[in-house]
Amino acid sequence: MRPARVGALIGAVGGVLFVAINAGAVPQPWPAYVRGAGAVSFLLVVWLVLRVPDDPNAYAPDSRQLQAFWITVALEVVAIVGGAQLFIRVFDRPDATLPWVAIVLGVHWLVFHVVFTQDVFVWLGWLTLACGVVGMVVALTRAGPPESVAIVSGVLTGVVMLGCVGVDASRTRRALLRWRQT
Predict the structure, then answer these.
(1) CA–CA dist 178, 161 (Å, integer)
(2) What φ, ψ does residue 113 adopt, rounded to 5°?
(3) Mind giving me the DSSP string for 35-77?
(4) Contact (Cβ atoms closer than 8 angstroms) between residue 158 and residue 22
(5) What letter would DSSP give residue 86?
(6) Would the CA dihedral through 129, 135, 139, 141 be positive or negative?
(7) In 51-155, where does DSSP find H-type helix?
(8) pLDDT digits (tens, 9 = 90+) for 119-135
(9) CA 35/CA 59 separation, integer angstroms
(10) Angle, vertex CA 104, rays to CA 157 and CA 109, nearest 5
(11) What is the Cα 22 distance to its own chain's centre?
């Protein structure tokens, strides 16, 4: 399986997990519906990703890019764990942890855009970052009910991930099919 397909599937799994884990913040009786919609969306995105034909001219990362990938992932893990501990133990603001994760994930996608030059990472990056920043503002200012942080930085981040991966798979498939016809 080509790296882009594996990455897309990982993004889809991450998206459905963000939705499923944080759907409990949605008022009753909606959590079950949100989780169900997330699961259906996940299956649709997987179907779209698996339908993308193999591209003989597919972008293949070189060793420098793969090294940058692993360094970015390692730094992301350190930032998530370290930031979460900081918000929980030092600032006594555990509600800011989820937005922090979304912010780090958004930056992660933007770094991936620089490394892999794939447009999907721009959309993933900025939209995820926006979900994280809005959630962080709500968490730190207590501008809304506590569950709004999980909805914005959790459920909405998952929707963004599923949506971007699905749209990218659909666009890539159409482009490859057009290219094959010429």
Answers:
(1) 26
(2) -60, -45
(3) HHHHHHHHHHHHHHHHTSPP-TT-----HHHHHHHHHHHHHHH
(4) yes
(5) I
(6) positive
(7) 63-85, 97-116, 120-141, 147-150
(8) 889 999 999 999 999 99
(9) 34
(10) 70
(11) 14
**What tokens does 5 get?**
């397909």
Prediction pTM value: 0.89
Three-state SS at 153: helix
List the Cα angle 13/10/25 in 5-degree steps.
30
Residue 36 identity: G
Backbone angles phi, psi at 88, to 5 degrees: -80, -50
Cα angle 174, 175, 180; round to 5: 100
**Tell me: the pLDDT tens digits for 57-75?**
766 778 888 888 889 899 9
